């Protein structure tokens, strides 16, 4: 257990990081991510308000659909990344735990111009993530909704139903692992019941922060505080696809339109045995310091060291060479396209 964003969080359970990681890649793992923040926006201008404070176009979402987005400041850099859920009569914003209070204060400043209300439901909402190729089979018997709804649920869509017969739940086909899976939102007082019901299937491995990090990094998914923060724009982070300038004004739009950045977030691999990059290790290009490792680990799926860093545009092409300083020695690193890990069907 470690302190994380004001909570005590498990790094691993008794099976250990590697077993947890492989369980998600091959079977089914369960993460307690109830520390995440949930904001509810209601009122006639709910969609317009969320469109103002995030970069993606909320008006394009159908009821039951989700998208990935960003909350920016006026400099065009990240306050946070987030998920946006469009429900029948309101919008839900899901933000990072470490940023929840800051995010709420930041977006509240824009609320006055809109006929909408903003409430923080984080402490009343539990969130469990069931991830892995067996997730659908494990979850289906426990969810009550219309026939075949869960099976037919598409990626980045959600449904509402009941869990174990009487617990109202939002079930989304989303996750932070690159595997098929679901995230379940429900009343925090029911958390132990839902967790126990899933674990009692005998087919689920509990997973901690360690496996969550190795799984998301293998897929090239960014982590706030490592790969993105308030010094980085979506364009630099390779996330231009979540920015929709054509929708009209949003916080940070003017700064983004004027940006001419000379760097990009890249992935890299290191072939040298024992050379594992970690957050903060210095990175060099052509002998010159260019920054530091954002995220890095030994990939359990691939058996090689992987990492991310910001590199000058001249060194962002696949196959470009960088150097990472590890314990006083420089190891050669090769720029690699995301994701690092590809499923067999995609290789």
What layout of secondary structure does this protein have?
Elements lengths: L1 E3 L2 E3 L7 H10 L2 E4 L4 E6 L3 H8 L12 E7 L5 E9 L3 E6 L4 H9 L8 E4 L4 E7 L3 H5 L3 E2 L4 H4 L5 E6 L3 E6 L8 E7 L3 H9 L5 E3 L1 H10 L34 H6 L4 E8 L11 E4 L2 E11 L6 E8 L8 E6 L2 E8 L11
Parallel strand pairs: 3-14
Antiparallel strand pairs: 1-2, 3-9, 4-7, 4-8, 5-6, 6-7, 9-13, 10-11, 11-12, 12-13, 15-18, 15-20, 16-17, 16-19, 17-18, 19-20
Strand content: 25-35%
The CATH superfamily of the largest domain is: Probable tRNA modification gtpase trme, domain 1
Radius of gyration: 20 Å
* Helix fraction bin: 10-25%
Class of the largest domain in CATH? Alpha Beta
Based on secondary structure, the structural category is: alpha+beta
Task: Provide the number of structural domains.
Answer: 2
Which regions contain 5 or more consecutive residues with pLDDT less than 50?
none
Summed over residues and divided by their number, the pLDDT gives a mean of 96
* N-to-C SSE string, H for helix and E for strand: EEHEEHEEEHEEHEHEEEHEHHEEEEEE
Biggest sheet record = 7 strands, mixed
Instruction: Kindly identify the CATH topology of the largest domain.
Output: Gyrase A, domain 2
User: How many beta-strand segments?
Assistant: 20
Please state how the strands of the largest beta sheet are arranged side by side.
10-11-12-13-9-3-14
The outline comes out as: globular
Q: What is the CATH architecture term of the largest domain?
A: 2-Layer Sandwich
